[in-house]
What we know:
This protein is an alpha/beta fold. It has helices at 15-26, 41-46, 48-67, 81-106, 157-160, 177-188, 208-220, 310-325, 354-360, 375-378, 407-419, 424-428, and strands at 6-11, 31-35, 109-112, 115-119, 122-125, 128-137, 141-143, 169-173, 192-196, 224-226, 231-237, 240-245, 250-253, 255-258, 262-264, 297-299, 339-341, 347-351, 363-371, 383-391, 397-403. It has three domains: 6-142 and 263-325, FAD/NAD(P)-binding domain (3-Layer(bba) Sandwich), CATH 3.50.50; 151-260, FAD/NAD(P)-binding domain, CATH 3.50.50; 339-442, FAD/NAD-linked reductase, C-terminal dimerisation domain (Enolase-like, domain 1, 2-Layer Sandwich).
Amino acid sequence: xxxxDYDLFTIGAGSGGxxxxxxxxxxxxxxxxxEDRDLGGTCVNVGCVPKKLLSYAxxxxxxxxxAAGFGWSVPPAEFDWPTLIANKDREIARLNGVYxxxxxxxxxxxxxxxxxxxxxxxxxxxxxxxxxxHILVATGGRPTKPDLPGIEHxxxxxxxxxxxxxxxxxxxxxxxxxxxxxxxxFAGLGVEVTLVYxxxxxxxGFDSDLGAxxxxxxxxxxxxxxxxxxxxxxxxxxxGLTVSLDDGTELTVDSVLAATGRSPNTVGLGLEAAxxxxxxxxxxxVAADYRSNIPxxxxxxxxxxxxxxxxxxxxxxxxxAELLFGAGRAPINYENIATAVFSHPNVGxxxxxxxxxxxxxxxxxxxxxxxxxxxxxxxxxEQTLMKIVVDAASDRVLGVHMVGPDxxxxxxxxxxxxxxxxxxxxxxxxxxxxxxxxxxxxTMRTPVTP
Length: 450
């Protein structure tokens, strides 16, 4: 007779939870996963996937305009928001089915319902109590709103994917990933967009050239950006939503999107009552091996508030499965994690920013700004930025950064180079693919003054 009902009980069927559960089952563990919402978590349902689909839709606005320079006569284009949302919903439903099939094929028991932790080896779903040798918390995060008068009138990114109609005027409050991505999406779909951010530059924490360049391009694309400005309150009236700003001005819009941060989903999970340590934001405190202060309870993904990226949660899920039921694997290296912002234009980045590198020692900076070949005929005055940060002593490339079309696709390859410890000399010895924008990364020869 087995001591526990399952070897692993996972709470949350998002990217990290599904990956950990599937790999654990393939290693011979008896696994159950509980989910009270849609499968796939934030990324599949209200994050990466639908956001990228909406971003594709918004890009067509510029594509239709650009086509004329290449000899195409395009009739006046018309956009239908309900069609886009219906098609997006159909794809998300398909992916939910794929996730369910993945779990079933791996032999994982899927339990529909909200699970709570009772103690080190017991969870509850409704009146049912289930025992497990290991409990994995993979409940992700949720968007939060600032505490302001009238903030109940604002939506978050979760609701933005399900708007019944496309608003005519939108104010977006924030300056990070979500804010600039939705500003670009709405502007590309013909919405009048104002982005309000309390900081001096959007994309705080990124290389400063990225935020400055993206802001200039977003303004060129019709987004009004108001920096070092804060929201004071929102009032609903006959004209829509009247938003008060701390500079004394007021704006009237149809929708306000709060994109000021996310919080770990730990409320109501029973973790504190079970003795699991949480930080001041509610994230599960974990050691390097993702164990909480109770060794049988582990956590991965956004709920540990470490690196909030889907591929990171996937890697953490594999690590935990191997740790508990396999031969183990090397710890995850959180340096040189590439990421992209699907703004218009895209941002791609891997490694250290110029400021981060300078804090470690002397650097050489290589930077190029240019107009892509496509726009010599389209007539669009869009600038591409490429930047390389190099350690002056070792010649090792510390950071590669880009603002421009397909930045994420391009930076992914350079992430491999950084992971391998590539030097600037090795970049220089690489023959580029011509004519491409990406070749600029291997042709920059003259450093600029840091």
